[in-house]
Amino acid sequence: MGEIVRRFGRSAAVVAALALAAGSAAACSSSGSTSGGGGGGAGSGSFKAALKNVHATAQTSNSIEYGDTAQVTKLNGGTTEGESGPFAGLLGVGADQLRGYSELLPEHTGFDYTTGSTAISFGTAPNTVQVLYGTFDPAAIGAKLAAWGYKSSDRGNGVTAWVFEDDHKIDMSKLDPSTGVGPGMTGWLNVVWVSKTSIVYGGATSDLAAAVPAQGKALADDPVVGPLADCLGSPLAAFVITDQKQIQNSKVSAIALGVTGTSASDLRMEICASAPDAAGAQAFATDFTKAVSSGKDLITDEPWSHLMTDPKTSVLGGANHIAQLSAKPTETRAGSLVVGLVEKNDFLGLLGLPTPAARVPAGGTDTETSPTSS
């Protein structure tokens, strides 16, 4: 499940990109193409609004990460203040690789994750496409990228495509060996589309043109993603997983996890889990309450009640059989709780299901652990 979230995968993403560079170059995608239009457009303001500008495909819908950058930054008191506060763990969600290099990249690119008001990434590596929405200066950003060796082409509708390696090779000689920073980075910043309202960037084989703008059907209207987004409401951060290879349990058709709140006092963890049938959704609600009240995290061996309290559930029903689950984090860094659940592949235990990424017992081997195990 390491592909699901790039937040914890900066080193993993670098390794994957280096492996890609070592092999033959991938076939060209349309990400650097001058044909077609658009790619800018609206999309900022909320999770559902951000999804309205993304074309619904199997690749874009299987894994989504969203962050309300402006609101999280405001609640956290800035991007460097309050590092131990409840919102610090949500900084950079949706733009994790940019945040990982936030002290090094801006002088070369003219932007970083704090430049946007919202951030969203979708798809799995190496085909991940990421978007910053906000207000940008295309001329200033273009000057930086040109100086760094990127070549430009006009996509129309106020969008300029900047491409470092159009054949999708990674020029390792351009990377600073001490920092790993260089044009194209390790492939994930190979193509950058810049407009006044958005910055879209992608990896070595990302197909930006097939992802944005929405073409026919948007992710907001996708029959699986749309209801999950409605269930989450207006999150500060959200993660959506629809790919069974990532979920690793057929009893969960799709799942969304998020954080909502307007202050530390009303911060809530939200889980919206879609089941194959109504009975499965009801089971999620029952088992979630039981887990929070008396269960334990089988990866950390810590009672769930130490991490969250005040469980609330509602079975929304509908064709997707969604169970809406919520709890109040108890940790100081409350915003990190949901991020940790996704990072550790640890959310299934809260639904009463076996945890595939269970701890390895002393002297034992890797096993699937049941939430009823002692």
UniProtKB/TrEMBL annotation:
Signal peptide boundaries: 1-27
PROSITE patterns: PROKAR_LIPOPROTEIN (PS51257)
Keyword check for Signal: yes
Keywords on record: Signal
Tagged with keyword Signal: yes
Record-given protein name: Uncharacterized protein
